[in-house]
Design brief:
Structural class: alpha/beta
Largest sheet: 5 strands, parallel
Number of strands: 7
Order of helices and strands: EEEHEHEHEHEH
Radius of gyration: 14 Å
Oligomer: single chain
Helix content: 25-40%
Number of helices: 5
Length: 133
């Protein structure tokens, strides 16, 4: 949630959080929710695609793990950015080499945060990405 300085109205910012590790999702969701964001969570790429179909108009940022079973974060981003090229993306992973092998993924709206990360690092990076909109 943030206050729009032009209208003085409260605005909820929606984040789609995708990670197959339940503990990571739980901690990240709690941190982001406490920071005032509305968080939709998915345990994998297929669930994230479904949530995006239903709530895409409201989602301001995708936070996704890179390595997941079935539909990984890279494929998820490719699918979503095919229809929403300006979607802001924060990749989170302990496998940085996945992105190093795919430098074409790191466009102007896509950033990377290496696991393990602190709550402060996550919330700071999310705020920075949302503020660049």
């Amino acid at each position: 949630m943030r206050r729009d300085v032009r209208t003085s109205q409260t605005v909820w910012e929606t984040i789609l959080l995708v990670d197959d590790d339940e503990a990571v999702r739980r901690i990240a969701k709690r941190a982001l929710s406490r920071s005032g964001y509305h968080v939709l969570e998915a345990a994998g790429g297929a669930e994230a695609l479904d949530l995006y179909r239903r709530h895409g108009h409201a989602i301001r940022l995708l936070v996704t793990d890179v390595v997941m079973p079935e539909i990984g974060g890279v494929e998820l981003v490719q699918r979503l950015c095919a229809t929403e090229p300006d979607l802001r993306v924060l990749f989170i992973s302990g496998h940085a080499e996945e992105l190093v092998r795919r430098p074409d993924l790191m466009g102007r709206h896509q950033h990377f945060l290496r696991k393990p990360f602190t709550i402060e690092e996550l919330t700071r990076m999310v705020r920075e990405l949302l503020d660049t909109a």
